[in-house]
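Practice problem: predict the structure.
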Amino acid sequence: MRRRIELSLVGLLLIPSAGLAATPPLPKLKVSENGRFLVQDNGKPFFYLGDTAWELFHRLDRSQAVEYLELRARQGYNVIQAVALAELDGISDPNPYGDLPLQDKDPARPAVTPGNDPNDPAAYDYWDHVEFIIDEANRRGIYIGLLPTWGRWVRNERNPTDQIFTPQNALAYGQFLGRRFSGKSVIWILGGDRSPEGVEEIWRELARGIVLGIAGKEDYSAALMTFHPHGGHSSAEHFHNEPWLDFNMQQTGHGPAERVQSWVRIKADYDRVPVKPVMDGEPLYEDHPIGFRLAREYGYSFDAHVRQRAYWAVFSGGFGHTYGNHSVWQMAMPGKRPINGPLFHWHQALHRPGAAQMQYLRNLMESRPFLSRVPDQTLIAENWEGAEYVVATRGEGYAFYYSPQGRPIVANLGKISGERLRAWWYNPRTGEAELIGTFDNRGRREFAPPLLGGLGADLVLVLDDESRAFPPPGRPAPSR
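Answer:
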């Protein structure tokens, strides 16, 4: 049992980062001037492509974490969502190095030791490991979407003894986190799959503590922050007008498409006043039992399902999207209690097809003018129902239509600029574009996909103002 000492929060500022040269921060992120997107501090648009790795800090060792981050960076992810006080007994089940995050389960007393040498078990503590992973992510151009705690430890109706937070220790814990990670490229995500009903003040104090730790004053511009809600809900329901909530996050969850209708939920937040960006931070995961108990009827999800949720959400107004795999979020492995029947070891699940296909969504969105884009269902003259529902979005000189099962698209033309349109099919499974032809930009026109329709035959119709001479969809645009 390693020796622990208790340090003041001020003393924690003296702890150096773990072993390697300091990692330069990535560009700071902020909300765009129109209130719809995230941009870097130089104004460059930022498409948030996230992966769900809730148990990353808790269950993976250093080499495993680097392997995970390296692959996700190659696959185009620029945000990884992970939890400091993890859901799966994260305050009582040690990490791979035998460390716990807190002393006596007290958020005001983080378990820290002097030094951070990973070769010295008495020096390398839980928070050194968290910092190491954040640094390795930042080195690869990835921001960490850092959840300070899973919601279980703030509110748990089924087991109230899980509730370790009060407004007072939430403030202290927030200050610790803010000070410890103030120089890192982090997106702060409060919440964690539990209703905040009745404990809103705890979350407010945690947010306040974080910015006090970073800026030394209650300056919410010092941290980019949101809230991860429970299934079927939005951060906006409790916190839309909070000064610390920079963008809204939905958890549309893991139910069947016709029940979830994520396009409705995202658009509802998009239409809120005051305007704030919105995204789906937890949709249906790949390889997840659809609807939990409904899985006997619907089975497990696969890549077609996660593509549908992604394009529905983004085309309905999302500024980005988060992917998840049911084995990866929990880092499923032998010796760890499985949750809801994961199909793979986490290492195998990293290579599932849906994970690699999300980059094609990001590539598509970044290949056309970004900050002018709006959702617009008037682009569609006739639509399908349920899981065949077509969504559309347009921006300066272009329009995108997503057919989730490859059904024909009947488009209302004349909605974007240009006398003539250049039309493409974009394949969300491969990122390849096929030119259809050029057409007059007026009237209605049906576009029949070249594939036989059905689940897995989804396609994007791209209509471009011919005079703009855009590159093929998914290819880098010369300017934004």
